[in-house]
Amino acid sequence: MYRSSNGSVTPEKRLGQNCIVQPLLTDLYQITMAYAYWKSGKTQEHAVFDLFFRKNPFNGEFTIFAGLEECVKFVDKFSYSKSDIDYIRQVLPSNVEEEFYGYLGNLTAKGVSLYAMQEGSVVFPRIPMLRVEGPLIVVQLLETTLLNLVNYASLITTNASRFRMAANKLNLFEFGLRRAQGPDGALSASKYSYIGGFDGTSNVLAGKLFNIPVKGTHAHSYVTSFNSLDELTTKNLAPSKGGKPVDFVDLAVSWRKKIVSIFNVMLSEVNNGEFAAFISFAIAFPNSYLALVDTYDVKKSGLINFSAVALALGDLGYEPVGIRLDSGDLAYLSLVAREVFTQISKDFKRPSFAKLMIMASNDINEETILSLNEQGHEIDSFGIGTHLVTCQKQPALGGVYKMVEINGQARIKLSHDVDKVTIPGKKDAYRLYGDNNLALIDLLQISSEDPPEVGKKVLCRHPFQESKRAFVTPSKVENLLQLYWKDGKICQPLPNMQEIKERVVNSLKILRPDIRRALNPTPYKVAVSDNLYHYLHNLWLENAPIGELS
Amino acid sequence: MYRSSNGSVTPEKRLGQNCIVQPLLTDLYQITMAYAYWKSGKTQEHAVFDLFFRKNPFNGEFTIFAGLEECVKFVDKFSYSKSDIDYIRQVLPSNVEEEFYGYLGNLTAKGVSLYAMQEGSVVFPRIPMLRVEGPLIVVQLLETTLLNLVNYASLITTNASRFRMAANKLNLFEFGLRRAQGPDGALSASKYSYIGGFDGTSNVLAGKLFNIPVKGTHAHSYVTSFNSLDELTTKNLAPSKGGKPVDFVDLAVSWRKKIVSIFNVMLSEVNNGEFAAFISFAIAFPNSYLALVDTYDVKKSGLINFSAVALALGDLGYEPVGIRLDSGDLAYLSLVAREVFTQISKDFKRPSFAKLMIMASNDINEETILSLNEQGHEIDSFGIGTHLVTCQKQPALGGVYKMVEINGQARIKLSHDVDKVTIPGKKDAYRLYGDNNLALIDLLQISSEDPPEVGKKVLCRHPFQESKRAFVTPSKVENLLQLYWKDGKICQPLPNMQEIKERVVNSLKILRPDIRRALNPTPYKVAVSDNLYHYLHNLWLENAPIGELS
Predict the structure, then answer these.
(1) Are both A317 and A412 inside the same structural domain?
(2) Looking at CA atoms only, how far is residue B549 from chain A in angstroms?
(3) Does A180 fall in a domain?
(4) How many CB atoms lie within 10 A of CB A493?
(5) What DSSP state is assigned to residue A214?
(6) ipTM of the complex
(7) Fewer CB atoms < 10 Å away: N or C end of chain B?
(8) Which residue of chain B comes nearest to A175, CA vs CA?
């Protein structure tokens, strides 16, 4: 009795684009501004907005840009439904002219041009990840949704990439579904963790929708659901290569008697419910036997029961996978487990036993992994939940969307806080490389300036500190902002998830190791051209009132 | 040209239940366990699971339970589609028996009973928010989705309720869409912030879907889009009560000349682009004029331009609403603004001017509000984004779902960490009240025990510390776990959002103020009955191996 498929939309279709990504997924003030623009005859003024952030997350010195595909899809489908308009009419004051609603109902993003960094590439403070140009009213109306789509996607991708660097070549799995911001927060977390460098997820729906490898074995409850060997109704298992099923329970029991001495434990102390659980799990999954060994006591129960069952599987030609540790001192327990596995491997001539996988999964963050690396451990694989999906160390990327030009005139947003002053004007962004294909600096220029050239000296200036400037002679120049959407069309193919995932890896390689490192990394340099510097500071002085101390 | 409505599902329908809340929104290990249970003939064993957390969030001593309605809807619709089964088949090993998939395809939650606390009520560590009973396989398969639906909902509701207490009677608006975990994270944030005590949201879609008041005026970009008064094409505004439109620009200009001396500023210093922006915004929204005054300089520009326009509106019979501050020293600037408004109110006999709304919205958290309260300020209304929706201080509630009984036998999950030991057995939870309708203690009992009675002494014990115990004589006893779903049906009406919102308010009133307070609150007591105490400790000793120091 499957759920009827007519009428109800399949999840794949529902999520080709997340159904709630729609023009009303915005702040109300975008719509009130839209009316005020309309009323002031400003709707068609040509506006340029930059989407950027001011500070790298996680005390780091890089960020990975993600969410572009969702942004392009959103712009592509931007239009208000009748139901949307009806709701807006209900929310705005009654004096709003009816003609405005007709105008809104016909609005699309066709006049908009969307420039963006490549999805999955490293980005830095103040360099626009998106530059959005077009009729003021539409460009303004896109703001909140674009920020929503870029902020968390970039944050979690960056977080995942940091875990990836900390874990080096070990396996990383995202286990955060139960701790994410609701169902979709969790799906985004799975998707962008994978892009950022994870090997898979526990989230089955994410696996189905995004084609991400899914992983998982069993929980403590599986173990506690068994009390004794008597409960096992299925006892037989056929050898891997076929043949007559044997009594697998007997086999495991006899192995346990044999090995218990290695552990310096009395057999009566080893938990039988756990043993039954492991046996039944191995019978169900003889080719992928991975057991959670900390329900009662790792050393005095879990490892013994696991090993007995694993050895029994070996007798029948199956390769057990390994164990998972979910509590206690992970470094120590992993060393104990490895020692036991090595011992058994030697004593019983089971070479692969020494290489059993040890997975760890208890509240792990980037620092835990770095500390484990220092202490020494035998973990092969991490399952990471809360700290990954909530980005506990910094749960939001402060991406903003600022007007920088209107009708060809630069605009600046001043602030009491210098860090919040925007860099005005329509700009291009270039990445200048030195030798060895390492990035030296990101340079913002006024769009009308000639691009920097390979082998030619460029003066690069700190946007706000007069004395900080340097000549750079690039051996390669990359134009960072590419056109993705114009005249109602997607202008270049959007890479698939695997391609974005690879770009993350390659993009991090252009950074010097001291910029990438976790502890006290060196800031990557972001500069403005000499022209832009003067342009910025002249505009600033023009707009800032002269203060008077009082 | 509205988006066609045939075929495409309206957002309301799409979100009656969030379309991605479905059985595959789970960890893979639930499904591997399901197969192992099936293979072991354990699917129909009667299991009891508790969903609870171990520590209140935000260094607080209470939590608000939320997400129940979503949980009930999920259980109600629980079934795998053909497409789900096809995907599961693809993910599980090839040796899994085909019959299992047929079994899964027919599975529903009909055999499950769901007990829960009331949505919107205060809850405490170790007391189950949900108790789920039924066939082992189904109850296990519900785990991850239930946790996902309860964890963030309860966390953000609790966070919102803390902001509400800090802000006392001031207005609170949720502005977090751009910083949430993607689109749905934002919708959940809007919904549960409202339930937790906020007055509205900026998120238009949340307003539409959940009928939450939406708020918003304009951004800095609206101000920077104007450069001078010459740009104003619409200049006239009719008086509030009708009549001949007047030149509103002239009126505002003349007011600005009149008031500039109050501010001790030269007219040439006041920004004209900002003035034009405010004028145009007032023409569009004469009845709801609220201006963001910090684009250039609050004291030397924003307040002057705002006041001139507000006075001009007053001339035409409109009541301006107020200002928003989004940077700088909010306490100081709000005092300055209030002083100016009071002065103008006096000088020009505009009594309502003194009461203009002052809204603040820059990266505000609970501590900011508490500190503003101490400093003294004149803010009436807060717009809160990042810290609210990401729950920056603690971005995840560590809710867990633990098996406590199977086939009538209690189960315990031990751990190296005493805090992680579960309280075994099928339990009921009672709240015992003292006089004044204040809650004294939450008491867990074995379900077969008689409920505590009013006026009768009960021995309440700390679950783990032998010497901590007390007699309590309740003047009221509340049975906390109510039956919400049984035999495939919802058993009692689910309250609407307004009712849940009211319950939050009332539920917090049963706590002593020292339990509710932000700084060093007193822990609320959670206890077990004497019977449960002994039951727990006997089972613990039975299951824990005797260690041996080595």
Answers:
(1) no
(2) 11
(3) no
(4) 8
(5) B
(6) 0.92
(7) C
(8) B27
